[in-house]
TrEMBL record:
HTH lysR-type domain span: 1-58
Cited InterPro entries: LysR_HTH_N, LysR_subst-bd, WH-like_DNA-bd_sf, WH_DNA-bd_sf
The organism of origin for this protein: Cysteiniphilum litorale
SUPFAM superfamilies the record matches: Periplasmic binding protein-like II (SSF53850), Winged helix' DNA-binding domain (SSF46785)
PANTHER family from the UniProt entry: HTH-TYPE TRANSCRIPTIONAL REGULATOR, HTH-TYPE TRANSCRIPTIONAL REGULATOR ILVY
Domain of life per record: Bacteria
Entries under PROSITE patterns matching the protein: HTH_LYSR
Xref: Gene3D superfamilies: 3.40.190.290, Winged helix-like DNA-binding domain superfamily/Winged helix DNA-binding domain (1.10.10.10)
Family affiliation: Belongs to the LysR transcriptional regulatory family.
Name under which the protein is recorded: LysR family transcriptional regulator
Transmembrane helix among keywords: no
This protein's UniProt keywords: DNA-binding, Transcription, Transcription regulation
Molecular function terms, GO-annotated: DNA-binding transcription factor activity; transcription cis-regulatory region binding
Length: 294
């Protein structure tokens, strides 16, 4: 077993794809297969269940995955100790964010990272912001871009703001409504699932003059904006999400005075910051100017 073999194993465990692993590790798919077979032979265990369509981790594979994370982190720490010059800093950062964040926030991080630490690589995964905190807390991701509330943040996590955005009521551009009262009176309200973990929107709806019909709960900004653009209903979303969506030209935004702006930040585990690579990444994110999208 060597570091390269563990890197190949970790990549396959995260992508569950031999072709993606081969591409990321600059190997052929057959070479990836040989690496995994040698590891399985060395440990006399099966790490992956595979057929013509799917690849999945076995229980032994899960143990091996967490082992590989520890060893690779320790290897990065050793390299940093042996080569204290920051220009030689190297390693991987597993970062989780939404598609919108990858448009708005990520380019600044990547640009700064490439300029300061060109040998530190980001392994990016996108998905619903609902999952970001859990993935970081469970060490499935090193960092996440998420809505943050310092008062509700897990004690094991640290967060640093990178963007502040106001919340807006979104209606179809074709609609003739000019006020929030009109919008809530004429259209059903689409509840955004990603904001149901707190009572902000519920409290705001209760405080309105109108008691709107509820269309239902919908996950994903793309789906919500598609429904709004089609005239199905109205909803509340962060301004930055709407402005950077391809449906922005079909959406009208109404300012909301009585919902406070939300903060988006980089979130990492306190424990992970003991790693020189992850600590430097954290410091780099802290050095970025906060984007104001209100």
């Amino acid at each position: 077993m060597n570091v390269k073999s563990l890197e190949v194993f970790k990549t396959l465990a995260e992508t569950l794809s031999f072709s993606k692993t081969a591409e990321r590790c600059y190997l052929s798919p057959s070479a990836v297969t040989r690496v995994i077979q040698k590891l399985e032979e060395s440990y006399e265990a099966t790490f992956f269940e595979r057929n013509n369509r799917n690849v999945s981790l076995t229980d032994a594979g899960q143990y091996m995955y967490y082992f590989s994370l520890k060893v690779l982190d320790a290897n990065d720490e050793l390299f940093a100790l042996l080569h204290p010059d920051e220009d030689n800093l190297r390693g991987d950062i597993r970062l989780f964010c939404t598609v919108t964040a990858s448009y708005v926030i990520l380019p600044r991080i990547i640009e700064a990272l490439n300029m300061r630490y060109p040998n530190v690589q980001l392994q990016l995964e996108t998905g619903s912001m609902q999952n970001a905190l859990n993935l970081v807390a469970s060490n499935q991701m090193d960092a996440g871009i998420s809505f943050i509330d310092e008062h509700k943040l897990d004690d094991n996590l640290r967060a640093h703001p990178v963007l502040i955005t106001s919340m807006v009521l979104v209606v179809s551009k074709e609609s003739d409504v000019q006020s929030i009262d009109q919008a809530l009176a004429q259209y059903p309200f689409i509840m955004p699932i990603q904001f149901l973990n707190d009572n902000t929107i519920d409290k705001w709806l209760i405080g309105q003059k109108q008691s709107p019909r509820i269309y239902g709960e919908v996950d994903g900004n793309e789906a919500i904006l598609s429904l709004v653009a089609s005239g199905v209903g109205v909803s509340v979303l962060p301004r930055v999400v709407v402005e950077h969506n391809h449906l922005a030209s079909k959406i009208k935004m109404l300012s909301i005075a009585d919902i406070t702006a939300v903060t988006v930040g980089i979130v990492m585990r306190k424990q992970s910051l003991k790693s020189p690579v992850k600590h430097k990444f954290w410091q780099l994110c802290q050095s970025l100017e906060i984007l104001d999208c209100r």
